[in-house]
TrEMBL record:
<keyword id="KW-0805">Transcription regulation</keyword>
<dbReference type="GO" id="GO:0032993">
    <property type="term" value="C:protein-DNA complex"/>
</dbReference>
<feature type="domain" description="Response regulatory">
    <location>
        <begin position="2"/>
        <end position="116"/>
    </location>
</feature>
<dbReference type="GO" id="GO:0000156">
    <property type="term" value="F:phosphorelay response regulator activity"/>
</dbReference>
<feature type="domain" description="OmpR/PhoB-type">
    <location>
        <begin position="124"/>
        <end position="218"/>
    </location>
</feature>
<dbReference type="InterPro" id="IPR001867">
    <property type="entry name" value="OmpR/PhoB-type_DNA-bd"/>
</dbReference>
<dbReference type="GO" id="GO:0006355">
    <property type="term" value="P:regulation of DNA-templated transcription"/>
</dbReference>
<dbReference type="InterPro" id="IPR011006">
    <property type="entry name" value="CheY-like_superfamily"/>
</dbReference>
<dbReference type="InterPro" id="IPR016032">
    <property type="entry name" value="Sig_transdc_resp-reg_C-effctor"/>
</dbReference>
<dbReference type="GO" id="GO:0000976">
    <property type="term" value="F:transcription cis-regulatory region binding"/>
</dbReference>
<protein>
    <submittedName>
        <fullName>DNA-binding response regulator</fullName>
    </submittedName>
</protein>
<keyword id="KW-0902">Two-component regulatory system</keyword>
<feature type="modified residue" description="4-aspartylphosphate">
    <location>
        <position position="51"/>
    </location>
</feature>
<keyword id="KW-0597">Phosphoprotein</keyword>
<dbReference type="InterPro" id="IPR036388">
    <property type="entry name" value="WH-like_DNA-bd_sf"/>
</dbReference>
<dbReference type="Pfam" id="PF00072">
    <property type="entry name" value="Response_reg"/>
</dbReference>
<feature type="DNA-binding region" description="OmpR/PhoB-type">
    <location>
        <begin position="124"/>
        <end position="218"/>
    </location>
</feature>
Amino acid sequence: MRVLVVEDDASLNRQIVTALTDAGYVVDKAFDGEEGQFLGETEPYDCVILDLGLPKTDGVSVLSAWRREGRVMPVLILTARDRWSEKVQAFDAGADDYVTKPFHVEELLARVRALVRRAAGHATSEIVCGPVTLDTRAGRVLVNDLPVKLTSHEYRLLAYMIHHKGRIVSRAELTEHLYDQDFDRDSNTIEVFVGRLRKKLGVDVIKTMRGLGYVVEESA
């Protein structure tokens, strides 16, 4: 899963990026509204953490611009402001959730997990696909109730496909959502990780759709 953090406080930006990275997310960052708006318009994100009080362009203007452009990724507003009128303004602009500084990192991570789940149509922290269970809260995978040890790359790949189970996901889409903007992207790497995943899972849940990509199916 790929997340964008738009926060002008360098220390807080670094803290959030580190927490998200440690939790298994791929993270891009911006320090002003102009850069953040550009990234949000040109890169695919599964969630955005957006500060309201940004230099160059404020957060509400950035969010409003994204929504006018049809960008539907979930957006979590992060700000020191706590007046109800500003919360209403943010929600009216298209925000999905709101956290006031100071905050606990664990709460922020829980809200991001919830936003990503809901955006993909899942209500609980455990997503089940046949014998495979993805525990998003613990960051682990079980097959027939037994834990399977995966690398961070393998986990991110499987997590994205299970979040979007039943839908064909192309190699290009997987590459865009699994690597940050500076990564030298090679779709052939996806094939390698899919092969490793199939061996480790030991069950036939990942189907190859020739010429289209992959799909994780309930009935598999």
